[in-house]
Amino acid sequence: MSATSPVRPVLPPDIRARKGSAPLVVLTAYSTPVARLVDAHCDIALVGDSVGMVIHGMPSTLGVTMEMMILHGRAVVRGCQKSMPVIDMPFGSYEESPQQAFRNASRLMAETGAPAVKLEGGQHMAETIAFLTQRGVPVMAHIGLTPQSVNTLGGYKVVGRADEADKVMADAKAVEAAGAFSVVLEKVPEGLAGRITKALAIPTIGIGAGVDCDGQVLVVDDMLGLFTDFRPKFVKRYAELGKTADAAIAAYAAEVRSRSFPAAEHSFPDVLPAKDKT
Ligand code: KIV
Which CATH superfamily is domain 12-240 in? Predict the structure, then answer.
């Protein structure tokens, strides 16, 4: 936001205060042009570590680095005027100790200009969340299916059915008590997500967690039909931009091969030197 802009950006206390009012609208963004589109309609632009899979073609989020999050984070912050950018802490940047988490979270904030970070984990990350929030780092928590733990969870499964429900509820209460300003519930059964939403004073943001959450988040490339390697059940396609782009690129290739592109209107006519004019 520029110093002269009349728009006050959304900050973590504004998001926390939205509990119980209009649903929070959240999408991921990884570039300035997409952040501008998200900014026009959403409350939060999440620079998710899903960037590794949807933009960089990685098989999971585990290979995402601090440098990648900083680069994409800066691009998104440049595109946000009124929505709030939040940057994911990548795998390996915060789990070792609260001090390691603070070093990397403060770097993400200082080097991107984003006012908040997101990290995965419930009760076992509560001490770290408290350490960060007490030192000026607003934290969005992320519980339920935590993709950075895909190898210990054994896949991208629903988390919180039957005997697991009490643990997910305890995770939600622990991150709230630790000072998180909101919590993402990923692939949590809808009834449990509704009960967690009622039990917490901070907003819940669901992805595959039903309609009773305080807000919803999707990966922007999923909902635009740009990332099609796989499609979780919770993704609704609002556009088929991948198909549109494929048709456009096919048309371009055909026109280049048939020499119908570039046409005269895309070319620059010669200007003859005066001596050659008759
Ligand atoms: O990385 C990401 O995009 C996320 C959202 C799916 C919540 O964490």
Answer: Phosphoenolpyruvate-binding domains (3.20.20.60)
